[in-house]
Amino acid sequence: MENYDNKYEVLKHYFGYKEFREGQEDLIDGILSGRDVLGIMPTGAGKSLCYQVPALMMKGITIVISPLISLMKDQVRALNEAGVHAAYINSSLTEGQIAKALQFAARGRYKIIYVAPERLTTYGFLQAMKQVDISQVTVDEAHCISAWGQDFRPSYLKILDFIAMLDTRPVVSAFTATATEEVREDILKTLRLHDPKMLITGFDRPALYYGVVTPLKKDNYVLGYVNQHKGKSGIIYCATRKNVDKVYSLLVANGVSATRYHAGMDDEERRMAQDDFIYDRADIVVATNAFGMGIDKSNVRFVLHYNMPQSLENYYQEAGRAGRDGEEAECILLYSGQDVVINRFLLDSKEDNPDLTVDETLEIKRRDEKRLQAMINYCLTKECLREYILLYFGEHKKCECDNCSNCQMEYEEEDVSDIAKAVINLVMELRGRFGTGLVCQVLIGSGNAKVRQYGLTESPSYGKLSGYGEGEIKEVISELIFQNILKKTDDRYGLLRVADGAVDVVTGERSVILKKPVNNDALDYENVSAGMKKHVRSASSRSKSKASTYVLNGKGDELFEQLRQLRLDIARQESVPPYIVFSDKALTDMCVKTPATLDEMLDVSGVGENKLDRYGKQFLDKILEFTGGSKPKLYLD
Ligand code: ADP
Ligand code: MG
Q1: What is the C-alpha separation between 31 and 635, in angstroms, rounded?
Q2: pTM to 2 decimal places
Q3: Under CATH, domain 7-200 is a member of which superfamily?
Q4: Which of 49, 81, 205 is the best mutation target for the ligand 1 pocket, counting ligand atoms within 8 Å of the beta carbon and taking the most?
Q5: Closest-lying ligand 1 atom to the alpha carbon of residue 43
């Protein structure tokens, strides 16, 4: 293997990229100067390159500790494709294979070795490592070392012992996407990093479109959506196994290429489902949140949430599996009031941890509820969704991103204080004994049995809003709950009470403003094609959005499709996932640059020397066949 002393050359030669992304260079420089580093960057930001580039430039080898077998496989495959000697050692290998790998490792055959943390302090591994020069130890998914985090892996604690057993201490680099301060402190402390260079990049993912929709029939929306995104890779998350089965059957019955994944299936079925998705044998996977850990598939173009998740933490992680390649992708949440009920039920049936005290258990429940409420508010807010997410994760940034459903929706403001006052007065009068339905009926002056039975025709509020429709009043009530002017009980009765802000509304000190979408068409999700208009709109306006990627035109899409097919054929021959051959981003860049020579091909993002040798000609021929050697413009401005 050639040795490079210029990081840009390494970047281009092996990975085919011309520029580093935010944060990468600083971390690489830190490592090369012999300093420990901690890099905190969101999913898809490109953490791997931060240790792989220095690994290729330093004298000895790099040991990478990674928590999941699938992650290791993926990384090693990608490195091998790029022409780097790398291997993994974990329990998916037989004893014989492990012995062989260790032998090769001891002879310095690999530049980068991925290992599971359990293996680090085993005799065989240590013996092999004694014979080589280790220049870097990298801890990937470093949050696994935090005992307070969700993904704690006790075996990560062995990393320290391992480092201590080495004759000379190598540079230690650690990477994670978990931003909370507790976890960060934990990593620094537990890993005992020496005067580390710490780098935290912004958590925004500009190429991701965020949307919340409230379709009358979610199934119609899903079908309409996947039909509009044929051939694109996507994940559809559902809250329950039952929903997974239902949506999966719906898709299959409609001829959509899909697979499914949930904890009720056996290991083999799940492994096959995962592979079908990764190898693009199925476009779509319908799954519970059991799916996704360890999936580095870079060309996921959309993540739909059929149900609202329990927290924004979960949502951001799951939605974040879209667009790892930096190309545009969509994250759309299908919300309905029923989701709140499902989630409350799931939280209630969560088993208590017997090791915790009553107080601690209550505290956990309180936090769960708080997280759920923040998630619900994400679905209800009319402000920028991106800003909402970033604020939640502690990044204060004024946004108006123009790349979320709220920013793209035109609203007009309506003062509904009068309706609000009437509602509040009645809710006060009823003293928390009734829910939204009855409140509405009394206000519009309905003569139904229940209203009469409780003598509410005598109420001073009876018929007070007779000129309004029930839907309008309901909308105001939802807004009042959202603004914490009214409260609704969590049980199935949903009884209404007044909350803190109510008095100010009644006295006229505070007005209640409702933001209503101007283009009602876009909200008509019953009619799927109308619902889709919004996405068509978002695609065209996105070409000018902050994401720096190109949007292909019709012809461009045609060429892309041909290249995608070629990629699929090659991937099948070589038994690797297609995105390991070339990312979607690389294919898009080919369509944009329409290279006419191998030299020009090398200019494409993601085409390094090794991939040029292996696949350059085939892709070039396909492009030439399409363009006839001319340079048509295949993208929108
Ligand atoms: P992370 O571990 O931070 O989630 P990865 O390291 O898996 O992200 O990288 C995500 C994707 O970004 C990969 O497809 C990778 O090839 C690509 N990538 C990384 N660095 C660059 C770069 N400088 N230019 C273009 N693409 C990059
Ligand atoms: Mg990673």
Answers
A1: 39
A2: 0.78
A3: P-loop containing nucleotide triphosphate hydrolases (3.40.50.300)
A4: 49
A5: 4
